Amino acid sequence: MNLSHKADYALRAVCNLSKLPKGKRSSIRLISQEASIPREFLAKVLKDLAASGILVSAKGVQGGFCLKRPAHKISYLDVIEAMNGPLHLSLCTESGECSCYSVDDHCYMHQFWVAQEKVFRNALSKRHFGIKR
């Protein structure tokens, strides 16, 4: 399983913005340079992060992007799901009911994937950006 480029770039961008002093904003150009993200792709990522309520954008000379809430209240899971939608490790867990059942209508993998997904989601939800200020 690989993290999508979009989610990876979003994590990098939020990490970059989490280092800003309170009340400061950063430009797409600066985030792109500091986080090694292609500028054109970054613009789409930042737009989606703002639409999901993770970032705030402002136009004008003093414009740019900043976090909408404190960094220590934004989890990795928040950012990944803002980019990719709900996180699932297998098709088996996407709908709540497994569609890959065997001949006897019982999927032997379902409970395994449900348990692994819970552990993974929990780990991502406990990892936050920045430090408490």
Would you mind describing this structure in some detail?
With 133 residues, the protein is mainly α. The chain is built from five helices and two strands. A two-stranded antiparallel sheet has the order 1-2. A hairpin with a 5-residue loop joins β1 (55-58) and β2. The longest helix has 17 residues, at 110-126.
Quickly describe the structure.
The protein has helices at residues 5-18, 28-35, 39-51, 76-84, 110-126; strands at 55-58, 64-67.
Query: What is the CATH-assigned architecture?
Result: Orthogonal Bundle
Order of SSEs, N→C? HHHEEHH
Radius of gyration: 18 Å
The main sheet orders its strands as 1-2
**Could you name the CATH topology?**
Arc Repressor Mutant, subunit A
CATH homology superfamily: Winged helix-like DNA-binding domain superfamily/Winged helix DNA-binding domain
Quaternary structure state of the chains depicted: single chain
* Overall mean pLDDT: 89
Distance between the termini: 34 Å
Give the biggest beta sheet. Answer: 2 strands, antiparallel
Record field, number of beta strands: 2
